[in-house]
Specification:
Length: 167
């Protein structure tokens, strides 16, 4: 199926979808910052994203072991930036994600890196395989980031309970 579509259309289509998803992530993140965070809200996005691994059932998306390692390393490096810039603030009615001006720039930076990487690598790596690598990179980024968020959340939650007991 994917071999019948010219690669240039796949690159343009997947780039447009990536830009749309980036904008949606920004909107969702802005709205989410207005509501208290919970462990469930931190854990669910990687679980929902994990369904994307079903793409690897199709031969076109399968990635070589070395490319898996490369994508995971790059994703983990990107996650460090997100872990460092994602913080929480305690309010009377719960724990909130602290608005970060850096998030917009980080998200845009990641989108630009993804776009440039896709354009440069699409001439040497098959488009389907490249899609699989970018999914692995994104999953390798979101899982450590969400684990870092969960650790920060539990730490703040524990501190707020101790503070409440002291009063």
């Amino acid at each position: 199926m994917f071999t019948k579509i010219p690669p240039v259309y796949l690159i343009i289509g997947s780039t447009a979808i990536a830009l749309f998803m980036g904008i949606m992530a920004l909107i969702v993140r802005t709205k989410a910052a207005k509501k208290p965070v919970t462990a469930k809200k931190i854990i669910l996005p990687p679980l929902f994203m994990s369904t994307g691994a079903l793409m690897f059932l199709f031969e076109e998306f399968r990635v070589a072991p070395l490319q898996i390692v490369e994508a995971l390393i790059v994703g983990t490096l990107f996650s460090i930036i997100l872990i460092k810039t994602t913080n929480f603030v305690q309010k009377e009615d719960g724990i909130y994600v602290k608005q970060s001006k850096a998030f917009l720039f980080i998200l845009l930076g990641l989108l630009i890196v993804r776009l440039v990487g896709k354009l440069l690598l699409s001439s040497t790596i098959d488009v389907g395989e490249l899609g699989g690598m970018f999914w692995i990179l994104a999953f390798g980024m979101i899982v450590p980031w969400r684990i870092g968020m969960l650790n920060k959340y539990y730490k703040m939650s524990k501190e707020s309970k101790l503070t409440a007991k002291a009063k």
